Amino acid sequence: MIPLCRIVTISFAGLLLASCGIGGGDSAAGDAETDRQSETLAMAISYPRQADAAGFARAALTTQLGKSGDFSVLEATDLDRKGPGNSMARLVWRIHRDKIDSGWNHAPAFDACYSVEFNYHGVSSGPSRIICPESATAITPPPLPRRDIPPDFGPALETALGALPATPSEADVRAALATGLPTQPVAPETGLAGIPPQIFVQVKGSDVGVALFARTGVNDKDCMLGHRVGGAVKVWSLNWRDQGPRETPCNAETALAAP
User: Fold this and answer.
1) Radius of gyration over alpha carbons of the chain, in Å?
2) Contacts 24+ apart (CB under 8 A), 57-63
3) Is the pLDDT of residue 94 over 70?
4) Is the pLDDT score of 24 beyond 80?
5) What's the whole-model pTM score?
6) Of 57, 110, 142, 232, which one has the greatest count of Cβ atoms within 10 A?
């Protein structure tokens, strides 16, 4: 948590000054606004869950504060966790405040640095004000390719299933999908092509079931199902309710058995 502030009153000016410190008598820059920003940011990036410190850093840099020129991530460290309750990652970030010199409002520029740790469930420690590391420079974690299933896969899967021979083999189905499904697009912001989904196929006579599965995060996934049963083609996706509490399997058997 943000450390409590010691309030000092200067009687002749009637001015309250806040002095915030951490252990050992050292003082760390910051104010109520940077405290609030850090608390909000830490909560915002706690979910969806991240796999590592770099994931939390990426999430932080996609927020409104993270995209501003006043914010930078200085450290992203993976910790040796032993269980879901133990901290798994630590971030140190910096919030810059420009000098204010307007009318009666005067304040020097400062850099406020914060340390926060995360476990599987969210924030496990902090954010706490710290002395900014000397000579620290901003870091940018490497981007990751997209892993979701783009919407245009639906019509392509429907077309591929409809064009199959009357009694296809599994090899026939996979060959049709290899040529009929779109190529994953390149994300303009990263320059990386998306990761193709896993493909599962089951054939029973003239009936065919297909499942496309993509793991998009630690606990998040995409699933698109399609079948040709009795000559009729159907393509649909499982929503988060199907894949969450209901735990509908994303496999070819599910696709083939669906009404």
Assistant:
1) 26
2) 57/91, 57/139, 57/141, 58/141, 58/143, 58/144, 60/91, 60/93, 61/140, 61/141
3) yes
4) no
5) 0.70
6) 57
